[in-house]
Amino acid sequence: MPWYDIEHITPLTGQQKDELAMAMTTIHAEKFHTPTLFVNCRFTEVKDQETYVAGKRRHTNRIFGHVRPGGRAVEDFNDLCLQLIQAWDKAVNNGQPGQGNKELRGTFIFADLTAASEAGFILPEAGNDKKWIRENKPAFEKLAAEGDEDWKGVLKEFEEKAYFK
Asked: Nearest to residue 105, comparing CAs of 163, 56, 143?
């Protein structure tokens, strides 16, 4: 459902990307009650990309998040930004605030994901997840019974997370 673009100028190891992607997935899933299967993260090294801030060329690390509009307060998104900064600092800077090329200079959340399909399903509007889960659960169960590990994981989340009940 959400799509996160992590643009970085500092080289990131596979382990750092794995840690950051897992942290971002957990943050988003817990905050907005989204199945983890639908949280997408893409890492792009942009050290050669020219970006301008205040009319001056800058090279910065930044995260762009595209989420479904509606049903959420600006405070939720501000908190999301702060949690993403903490996740970056934990994965990249051993839990300390980043400095220079290791600083996460910006987090930008856009409520612009108007429509999407993923894993064969049209995704619901924000706030309609529980209804969407009820309507599609038989199809999820069928996919899991056929051996699809992703859907087995989704069904396990539905059982374990109180917000899906």
From this structure: 56
From its phi and psi, is residue 125 left (phi > 0), alpha (psi between -120 and 50) or beta? Answer: beta
3 state SS of 119 = coil
Model-level pTM? 0.93
Among residues 27, 110, 112, the alpha carbon closest in space to that of 63 is found at: 110
Q: By C-alpha distance, which of 99, 90, 103, 91 is closest to 61?
A: 103
Report d(CA 162, CA 123) in Å as an integer.
21
- CA distances to 61, 65, 154 from 69, in Å: 25, 12, 23
User: What is the SS3 assignment for 19?
Assistant: helix
| pLDDT tens-place string over residues 62-113 | 999 999 988 889 999 999 999 999 999 999 999 999 999 999 999 999 999 9
Q: Of 14, 66, 37, 28, which Cα lies nearest the Cα of 151?
A: 37
Backbone angles phi, psi at 53, to 5 degrees: -130, 125
Handedness of CA 92, 97, 101, 107 (dihedral sign): positive
Which residues are within 8 A (CB) of 75 and not within 5 positions of it... i.e. 6 or more apart?
Answer: none
E strands, 111-157, in order: 117-118, 121-122
Long-range contacts of 137-143 (CB under 8 A, 24+ apart): none
